[in-house]
Amino acid sequence: MTEQLLRVMNFCVSRDGIACGPGEDQSLEEPFGLPRPERLFSWAGATASWPNRTDPGGSRGLDDYFTRDFPRNIGAEIMGRNKFGPQRGPWQDHDWQGWWGDEPPFRTPVFVMTHHSRPSFTLSDTTFHFVEGDPKTVLEQAKEAAQGQDVRLGGGVTTVRQFLDADLVDTLHVAVAPVELGSGLRLWDSPDELEDRFNHEAVPSASGVVHHLYWRR
Ligand SMILES: NC(=O)c1ccc[n+]([C@@H]2O[C@H](COP(=O)([O-])OP(=O)(O)OC[C@H]3O[C@@H](n4cnc5c(N)ncnc54)[C@H](OP(=O)(O)O)[C@@H]3O)[C@@H](O)[C@H]2O)c1
């Protein structure tokens, strides 16, 4: 059996390393806590394979490759509670079932890390489980659920940093958009800072985004 990887995929940051607004700025209207998050993500939305595309067309170059690759060989996702939604503390509103509507794009088990318990639920072919534990234990759970496929580490920043600190991440793809945001939650100070542990290739795309690819040394 091939090795199961933990993969960060299509994680979007600005040139100054910002992935989203500070946590207190997140709201139902602004999932990313930023007034104009589309500047980080527009490269993916412009591709032919963008799942929410309503009109024909779209680019079929490098950006499209990463958009298409998102579900490939992924059997489970791990995400932090703030990626799942804007509630903080004990769950007050169980009607809130994530940002993604009745058909979440994951189509796998999703492990939402939180210190506050909540029953699992299923929407279409995605089941959300709410788990507390150290990253290694949560990864073991997710790998078992993934049944031999890889596990995607979906973010946000706190969660990705936590798994990086525990040295559990096998590959990362970070898309750096040609914008400066100045403040917010920062993934890194520089794309070079992971090079002690990871091989690193930076591949510029015609859209102006630079795709940074990392894999373990
Ligand atoms: N730019 C991108 O590509 C991208 C991708 C994904 C997400 N985002 C954005 O990132 C933001 C969220 O990031 P974030 O850093 O604020 O939060 P996050 O990583 O999504 O979630 C952090 C929360 O997860 C829970 N948690 C983390 N580790 C845990 C553990 N070991 N055990 C139990 N619970 C644990 C804690 O919640 P409790 O203590 O409350 O339980 C913690 O406050 C959102 O705005 C989202 O839209 C951006």
TrEMBL record:
It holds the Pfam family RibD_C. InterPro entries: DHFR-like_dom_sf, RibDG_C, Riboflavin_Biosynth_HTPR. SUPFAM superfamilies: Dihydrofolate reductase-like. One of its GO terms (molecular function) is 5-amino-6-(5-phosphoribosylamino)uracil reductase activity. Transmembrane segments: none annotated. One of its GO terms (biological process) is riboflavin biosynthetic process. Residues 108-191 form the Bacterial bifunctional deaminase-reductase C-terminal domain. This is Deaminase. It comes from Streptomyces adustus.
